[in-house]
């Protein structure tokens, strides 16, 4: 990744003092942390949402999570183009403002329907600011320091996704589910004010293109229909016309998206990226990993609160050893992967993650046994996440030309979010209802272990070893 570069930017005035790269990084990191946090923080809040809206079914409540993730995934790449065309600072600050306003709307929502709409708007803001934040960071650092900056930027995202459920549980237990959204407001406002004062505008109109509206619609509708079918399978039979119809319609719309993207001038997802063998396999692994990651965090909080009857705060504390291991593991393993390639790290990390899920499937019973049943599983999955998540992001762009780094990274992030949608839908279908049995959760943990082994197998063809 040492060859990273950005396309020529709009000139800056000679009199303007350059902004410190680390100041730009800190502003971008606050916003990225909040966006990544919001993808996972509601896994812990799901029981509180169920109590706050008792008339809503688990399937209905799952759309509080999935509406955000579907829209976020579909808009990441078009939003990156918008930032190139209209200005990275403008996209970053505008997206952050939309994200914060929608966060306030989420916390004040009087019904599940209003909450889902507010989450959808929140996702639009998140999609606008995330690609712009990476472009701002790349533009702020000299070429020889961009690889380090991007690695740290990815670590911030991974840390937020990992600690989201634990932090969310503490907030929700003491302040109710709205505080999972109100958390964004003070920190987001700091980033908004500092960004308006300190960030410098940059554009690259050559990379900008009109937003692919038909492609975005097909992608959102396809992923959403598949998620709807998976969620409804819990209350209806898999052979139900409603379930089967949703799944078939979703697959048909995704097939239509592929056909459209092959002909479109500037599609929502550039399929030519997948001509690279490593990129194809890494994104397949990213999709499967996204499913397993979302299922794991959803299931551990449902198990701790529903089977062991832990309070949300206690469940968050119980889950914290795993997330605390993610960043130090990522930093150590990232340095090794830069020198030796990512394949061995990805395979080893996936198998460690699988071992943690298998341990919980075997060791967790109706009687609480934290030290012997829960803690080893948290440690193993935390190590696995730290080894896999940053390596997937880095390997995805290892073979891309510098001018395709942004779009290649955005596509990889979008694929992971689509996996998260499917993971939440499967987890809700298997163990999302109140009173789910130990056997249902054991089944869910085995699913996660199998998916993690699948990630390891998908990474076998990956080759990102440094080239002479």
Structural overview:
- It is a single chain.
- With 468 residues, the protein is mainly alpha-helical.
- It folds into 3 domains: 20-201, Growth Hormone, Chain: A; 212-267; 273-468, MFS general substrate transporter like domains (Growth Hormone, Chain: A, Up-down Bundle), CATH 1.20.1250.
- The chain has helices at residues 21-52, 58-86, 88-107, 112-140, 146-175, 179-182, 184-198, 213-232, 241-263, 277-306, 312-319, 321-340, 343-363, 370-396, 405-431, 438-458.
- The chain is globular, with a radius of gyration of 21 Å.
Short précis:
By secondary structure, the protein is an all-alpha fold.
Instruction: Note the run of SSEs as H and E.
Output: HHHHHHHHHHHHHHHH
Count of alpha and pi helical runs: 16
CATH class of the largest domain: Mainly Alpha
Q: So what's the overall shape? A: globular
The chain-level mean pLDDT equals: 82
How helical, in percent, are the residues?
A: over 70%
Strand fraction equals under 5%
Ends distance: 14 Å
Question: What count of structural domains?
Answer: 3
What does the oligomeric state look like here? single chain
Structural class: mainly alpha
Give me the CATH fold name of the largest domain: Growth Hormone, Chain: A
The counted number of beta strands is: 0
**What's the CATH superfamily of the largest domain, by name?**
MFS general substrate transporter like domains
Proper CATH architecture of the largest domain:
Up-down Bundle
Task: Report Rg.
Answer: 21 Å
Low-pLDDT segments: 1-16
Largest sheet: none
């Amino acid at each position: 990744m040492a060859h990273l570069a950005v396309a020529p930017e709009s000139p800056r005035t000679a009199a303007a003092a350059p902004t410190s790269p680390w100041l730009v990084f800190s502003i971008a990191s606050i916003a990225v942390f909040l966006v990544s946090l919001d993808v996972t923080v509601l896994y812990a809040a799901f029981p509180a949402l169920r109590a706050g809206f008792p008339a809503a079914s688990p399937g209905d409540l799952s759309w509080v999570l999935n509406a955000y993730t579907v829209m976020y995934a579909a808009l990441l790449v078009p939003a990156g183009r918008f930032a190139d065309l209209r200005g990275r600072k403008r996209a970053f600050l505008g997206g952050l403002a939309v994200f914060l306003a929608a966060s306030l709307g989420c916390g004040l929502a009087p019904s599940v329907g209003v909450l889902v709409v507010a989450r959808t708007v929140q996702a639009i803001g998140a999609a606008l600011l995330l690609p712009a934040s990476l472009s701002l960071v790349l533009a702020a650092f000299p070429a020889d320091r961009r690889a380090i900056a991007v690695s740290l930027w990815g670590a911030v995202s991974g840390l937020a996704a990992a600690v989201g459920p634990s932090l969310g549980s503490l907030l929700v237990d003491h302040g109710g589910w709205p505080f999972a959204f109100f958390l964004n407001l003070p920190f987001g406002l700091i980033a908004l004010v500092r960004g308006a004062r300190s960030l410098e505008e940059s554009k690259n109109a050559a990379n900008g293109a009109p937003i692919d509206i038909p492609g975005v619609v097909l992608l959102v509708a396809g992923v959403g229909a598949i998620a709807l079918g998976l969620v409804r399978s819990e209350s209806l039979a898999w052979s139900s016309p409603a379930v089967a119809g949703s799944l078939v319609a979703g697959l048909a719309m995704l097939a239509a998206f592929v056909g459209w993207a092959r002909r479109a001038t500037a599609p929502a997802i550039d399929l030519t990226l997948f001509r690279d063998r490593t990129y194809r396999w890494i994104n397949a692994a990213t999709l499967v990993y996204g499913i397993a990651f979302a299922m794991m965090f959803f299931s551990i909080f449902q198990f701790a609160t529903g089977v062991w009857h832990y309070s949300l705060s206690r469940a968050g504390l119980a889950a914290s050893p795993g997330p605390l291991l993610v960043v130090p593991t990522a930093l150590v393993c990232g340095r090794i992967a830069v020198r030796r390639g990512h394949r061995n790290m990805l395979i080893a990390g996936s198998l460690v993650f699988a071992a943690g899920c298998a341990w919980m499937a075997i060791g967790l019973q109706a009687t609480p046994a934290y030290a012997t049943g829960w803690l080893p599983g948290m440690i193993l999955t935390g190590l696995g996440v730290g080894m896999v998540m940053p390596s997937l992001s880095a390997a995805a762009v290892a073979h891309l030309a510098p001018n395709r780094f942004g779009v290649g990274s955005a596509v990889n992030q979008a694929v992971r979010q689509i996996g998260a949608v499917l993971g939440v839908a499967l987890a809700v279908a298997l163990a999302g209802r109140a009173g789910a049995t130990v056997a249902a959760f054991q089944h869910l943990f085995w699913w996660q272990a199998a998916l993690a082994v699948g990630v390891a197998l998908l990474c076998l063809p990956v080759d990102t070893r440094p080239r002479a």
